[in-house]
Write a structure and sequence with these properties.
With about 180 residues, the protein is of the alpha+beta class. It has helices at about 125-135, 140-155, 165-175, and strands at about 10-20, 25-35, 40-45, 50, 55-60, 65, 75-80, 85-95, 100-115, 120-125. A hairpin with a 2-residue loop joins β2 (about 25-35) and β3.
Length: about 180
């Protein structure tokens, strides 16, 4: 999908994740916010839903998600006051579908920055180990994502843009103005 065919800012979209085998994973109710030098941004207002088989979650506070052109992660930043500030889902083929909505393959590893004293860490390593065998992730995909997880953890820890507060807060302000 070209930049010209992105939805208009303010348009509702569903961000659809699946697993490597094609199984449905998370579907997030979102709104398209726009694009900057880091990629595309979608937002989720408080009260909007995220669902997956067996789980239905309502957003407690607003959040915004960056979909970078690298297509290998999506970075969600929660409004201040949430126990997790940054949650990065490492993914594969994270992109805009022909239907004009974000989609991607969830690849288990996550980079998490909590505000409740737990700090910064790479999450779900156990799930990664199990699924890379079960689904037969290609070795080059495994190497790329393991290296990326460590690089993202470092960049989040250093508060490099777009993992700094100012970048996400500007998009949270745009979400609040809708």
């Amino acid at each position: 999908m070209s930049d010209a065919s992105r939805p208009e800012p303010g348009s509702p979209v569903a961000f659809r994740w699946r697993k490597w085998d094609g199984a449905t994973h998370w579907v997030h109710e979102c709104v398209y916010l726009g694009r900057d030098e880091h990629g595309d941004w979608v937002g989720q207002k408080a009260g909007w839903r995220s669902v997956r088989p067996g789980r239905d979650v309502v957003a407690e506070l607003p959040n915004v998600t960056l979909i970078p052109p690298s297509a290998d992660f999506a970075c969600t930043v929660n409004q201040a006051g949430h126990r997790v500030r940054i949650y990065i889902d490492l993914g594969w083929d994270v992109r805009w579908s022909d239907a004009g909505e974000p989609t991607g393959i969830d690849m288990d590893l996550d980079v998490v920055k909590a505000t409740d004293g737990r700090g910064l860490w790479i999450d779900d390593r156990d799930e990664w180990e199990e699924h890379r065998v079960r689904y037969g992730y290609p070795v080059e995909v495994q190497r790329h994502l393991e290296s990326l997880a460590e690089d993202l953890e470092r960049r989040v820890g250093a508060a490099e843009p777009p993992f700094d507060d100012a970048t996400a807060d500007a998009w949270l302000d745009r979400l609040a103005a809708l």
